[in-house]
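Just curious. Invent one:
>
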Amino acid sequence: MKKAAKIAHTTHFTPRATLAAIGVKLRTLDLLAPLKERVKIGQKTIKHDPFDKLQDALITILAGAHGLSEINTRLRSDPALQRAFGREACADQSVVQATLNACTPTNVGEMMLALDVIFERQSLTAQHDYRASMLLIDIDMTGLPCGKQCEEATKGYQGEIGIRWGRQLGRVLAAQYEEIVIDRLYPGNLYLTKTLRLLVADLERTLKLDEGRKQRTIIRMDAGGGSLDEINWLLERGYQIHGKDFSAARAESFAQAVTEWITDPNHPHRQMGWVEGVIDDYVRPVKRLILRWPPMKQEKRKNKPYHYACLLSTLEPEEVIRQLNLPLETSQKKEAMTLAYSTLYDKRGGTVEVEIKESVRHEARRWNE
């Protein structure tokens, strides 16, 4: 009787066990299948096909690499992590770089469409029931400093560090689900006034927004996207808006028509007041809530005791209440309702700004290292 052949078992260990578990889950979901099906890079396959090399690049990024040169040290030296993602071996970093260099604008378009397919299959945002509630979308941009040799790097305002070489990160986020819908990089001298329409166009494609869905979608953004032309463009497309006017001078002018100021209990230094009447500048009726607050002690403002901002909103009180999960009787209390409108705007700092700040911190750490 022949003895059963012994099967050799090889045990691998990895310092990235959590990422390995994620890799196993991604394989179970077959998450990257749309990339393999749709992204066709014109490059010969010798040992690893282009999709394999894209996958190696992705795993290396997830492993915390600062550049593709770390493929050899982070992934190639970690066979357990390779197996977790279904890779039997890892391509050399130079070969992966050659594949990325071979990509064309057509491949970039294919990648974007593949990512849209993945988003549609896996995200909660794509399954949102517009009949049951409105979808709240946050849009913002922030500077990402970089070297002037980087692609599309230009001098521009990079937030707290002032004017320097960098790029701008445009991000669209679904607030209810805390999911990033759109992520785009732009030259460092472009801001939301110039990129808002591009971001919204990508949003419409990814979420397949028809006329009915647009009317049930709230665009929330800061003053960077609040120019008269951009607000009217959004209103003409049917969106609900909740954001600040671009012009502080217009806000100060509107403030002269406020007859009653309410102190914000959450920010005692800030006061709020409604502007009555209709303004003809907008293509649809827009509510205007003026916010004012005194300048900091170190600021020098001659004969101007306040800063001003104007919050623009097309939302009815009932919708604001729904978005904040407040009692229905709130709509009967003027002060509480005024506070609700400002609170709904302030909450954007807990979604899109937090997400962007995390990205900026990560980029800053990479830059400093």
The chain has 14 helices and ten strands.
